[in-house]
Amino acid sequence: MEIKKSALKVTIGFLILTAIFSIWIVLLGEFGDFEIRVLLTTLSISMASMCAMACGAHIEKAKVQLAGGIGIFSAIVSLMLTLVLIWTEVKGEGIWRTCFSSLLITFALAHVLLLHLPSLNKKHLWLRHLANISIGLMSSLILLLIWRDDSAFEAFFRLLITLAIIVALVSLLIPIFSKLDKKSEHKLEDELQNQSNVKAESQPVELKLTQIEGAIYVDESGKEYRLVEL
Which of 77, 134, 166, 169 is the most exposed place for a label (fewest CB within 10 A)? Predict the structure, then answer.
C-alpha cells in the first residue's frame, strides 16, 4: 500500500510540476535547451512513477510478488538511463538502444501487470493469457527492431501491427469482462439469497401453546391466542 501511495504522490506532484512549467514556458515564450531538458525530466519521472505504481498495485494483490519487484526495478533503471541521456552529451548508439530497450521492458511489464489486476471468471482467463503472449511477442519484435536495423521488412511490420491490434483489443476486453463478471456474481448471489428466503418462509413454524382457559392459549413469549376450529 505504501509503494502505491508513494508512487501516486510522486506522479501527481511531477505532473502538476510539468503542467506549471509548460504554462510558464508558453506564457514567457522561452523554450531553450535547458527548458526542454527540465520538461523531459519531469515527464520522465512522472512516467516512471506511473509504471512503479502499476507494479506496486500488483505486488499488493498478487501472491507472487517477483514480477512487480522486477517492474519497479526496471522503472528505476529506465529513469536513470533516461536522465543520463537528457542531461549529458552521450555519444554512441549502445546506450541509446539500452535505454529504449529498458523503457520498452518497463512499459510492457507495467501493461501486463495492470491487466492482471481486474478479476476474471475462469471462462475468461484466456484473455489474460492472450494479453501476456501478445504483449511479450510485440515487445520482442520491437526489441529486435531496436538492436537489428536490418530486421525491418514488410512482413515484420505486418506482424507487429497485428500484435498491436490484439494488444489493444484485449486491453479493452479484460476490464469490460471483469465488470460483467462482477455483475453476474452479484446477480447469482441475489438469486441464491432470494431462494434461501423463500425456502425459509415456506418451512412450517412450530408454535408451542399453553391453555389458559377455554379457547385462550399463550405461547412462550406471553402472547395470547384464541383457538378456533376450522
Answer: 169
Contact 158, 141 (CB under 8 A): no
* Amino acid in position 195: Q
Provide the residue ranges of all domains of the chain, joining segments of one domain with +.
Answer: 1-117, 121-187
Strand (E) positions, 150-229? 210-213, 216-218, 224-226
Residues 100 and 108: beta-carbon distance below 8 Å:
no
Of the listed ranges 13-27, 67-81, 131-145, the one predicted with least confidence: 13-27
Q: What single-letter amino acid sits at 82?
A: T
- Say which amino acid occupies 227: L
How much is the CA Rg of the chain, to the nearest whole Å?
31
Lookup: cell for 132: 501476456
Nearest to 115 by CA among 49, 154, 124: 124
